[in-house]
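Protein details
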Amino acid sequence: MDNQADSYRFTSQEVLCPAERKAGKTPCCSTLKMFIVALSFAYFSKALSGTYMKSSITQIERRFDLSSSLVGLIDGSFEMGNLLFLALVSHFGAKMHRPRLIAVGCLLMAVGSALTGLPHFFMGRYKYDTLRHHPLRPMNLYRCVSLSFPECVKDPGSNMWIYVFLGNALRGIGETPVTPLGISYIDDFAKAENSAFYIACLQTITLLGPMFGFLLGSMCAKLYVDIGFVNVDTVTITPKDARWVGAWWLGFFVSSAIMLLSGIPFWFLPRSLPKQGKENKELPDTQQQHPGITSVHSQKLTDIAKGFLPSLKKLLSTPTYFLLLCGSVLKFNSFIGLLTFKAKYMEQQFGQSASRANFLIGVLNLPVVAVGIFLGGLLMKRYKLSVVAGAQLSFLTSFTAYLLLLLQYGTKCDNIQVAGLTCKGTSKVCSYWLFSECNRNCSCRAEEWDPVCSENGITYVSPCLAGCTGSTGHGKHTMFHNCSCVLLTPPPAEGSASVTLGQCPRGADCSRSFTSYMAVSVLSSFINSLGSTPGYMIIIRCIKPQLKSLALGIQTLVMRTLGGIPAPVYFGAFIDSSCLKWGMKKCGGRGACRLYDSDMYRLIFLGLITCLSGSAYFFIIALIVLLRQQFAKEDKRTAEQAPKPGQIELKVPCDFKKEFPVQTLTGTKESLEPRAMQVTKEAGHEEAVTANELQACPVEQCPDVDRPAEQTLNPANGQTEVQKNTVCDSQHTDAKSDVM
């Protein structure tokens, strides 16, 4: 019992009233700082890899001939793999070698990224839909004649998308230990005042990952998928063509190499470190001399395990947390859908290439989001916003961005005029359906998609359906002549019956609409990000301290389960419903969509986002009202418990020669001075001090042991009241000797 008491006194002294020792010179590059640098690079790498996957959605969809809903399922496989091991890693990871677990996670992410890009080397060369690939049609002739088609041979790479699914899931499994174990490692061994700063630096560096991920996606989308294996000059399609597939596989190998490098330092970092600022103290010897500390912690872990279900029930029955959770799930669904299909929306609505869409997102949208998050945190610190004020700021910025989003309904481009699809017999300039008299004898196939453009601005599905009988030139410069269907449309002033390869470009009005769209998008992203930090602080401050970790974990679990996995799937399914022209696989079956109804696409895409975000505001408004009521009651209770005028609150100093309980003395100056002199003498102080000379004992935030008992002097009866304090009070970090 004496040893255990000594142990508690030692811990209390170390935590509450540390003795003054001369600290040794701190090395310029401590192990903790090396860990933070390595973890920052790992954060950057995993963010780059994740956003590159988002930027390659369109390329994967076209290369494997998949629908948007199926490619959305592939994208959600990351969350599936992550959730599969999240609970196990979070529970057992803290008991193991955390840096090496992070290294294993980086290795798994590297292998997963490499596995995602590997199918490219087993699928053969990419053959897009074109009449040039038909063996009976010479390169220089696209005759409108009857042809027989050979028996189809099933593509051996038709099911290779499964490896992309598995690789993305493996990357999700590898990401599991990086965030929880990295943050806990920093929090365990960094000073309390430095921990928040280090984590903020991590989040800032992480924001660079998505920017470089989209830029990498832009570069790879500009390169042809089989670059280095085929002569690019023979390719007849351009990056703006619906059949174009960029070098999607290249970015996954680049991100795999970066992830592999980021994991190397963690293999050489120690399992534990001395607490920052106590590097010269022999902590291991201390723990050996005081084994009682370990048993206390073991008991606490057991109690936590037993109390999991009651804590979870208490958390979910907290109205503020439940409302915040519902609103967060809806907002996260809209965010994931927007991030996954934003580049594709820019392609289909405004005729941008995948490369340019990814480039603009990486250069314009993401940097302003980073600035907005930083400024939001600065506002919280500068004006010391309360929880209610932070919630109101978050709601105001989010709702303003929501109103700006509504403006995007008006920034649009008209459907391109495609004969037989968007331009039918009722149009003056397009007086025929897909099949008509002009191409009846051409044996054209309805599933063909090799678009050509006439000089009157009408796009035809193929030269055959345009009724063309001759061609000149080669490659991208091929022209087709004597097109009988074009003759039926009003010709331009100089007259022409020829068409060129590719869809007709959009007009100048579309370019102006796209500029307006990007301006609104960038402004909306910036304003919305201003409220991110205040909104995140709600869950930190309105939940009881003992439930914060569980609250953050449950929020992550629910958001990924109900948002990260299903959102890409149902967004893709709704987008598929706006498809006008599907590609066909070699042996039948629907492939990737070649042409969308841009008006319906816009209404579906923006409609889903606005409905989800709009529904979330009902929960957010209810949350703000509840927070106001809750904190109004707390303020009233605090005012009632405040010391009366003429009373002071003092604490005994820490520089006494022997251990003693921390004592808080409350009362008038005259009543406290005799008691203060007695306490200082009992504590072993050489000279008695007056009440004016008392200073507060500094208390570290949230020590691992309970604070000692407090003794409070009641001035009314002169009796000393002893009250055990087991709650960490991070506010008592400064000396307090104010006359109320």
User: Anything to note?
Assistant: The radius of gyration is 34 Å. The longest strand covers residues 590-596. The mean pLDDT is 75. The CA atoms of residues 448 and 462 lie 7 Å apart.
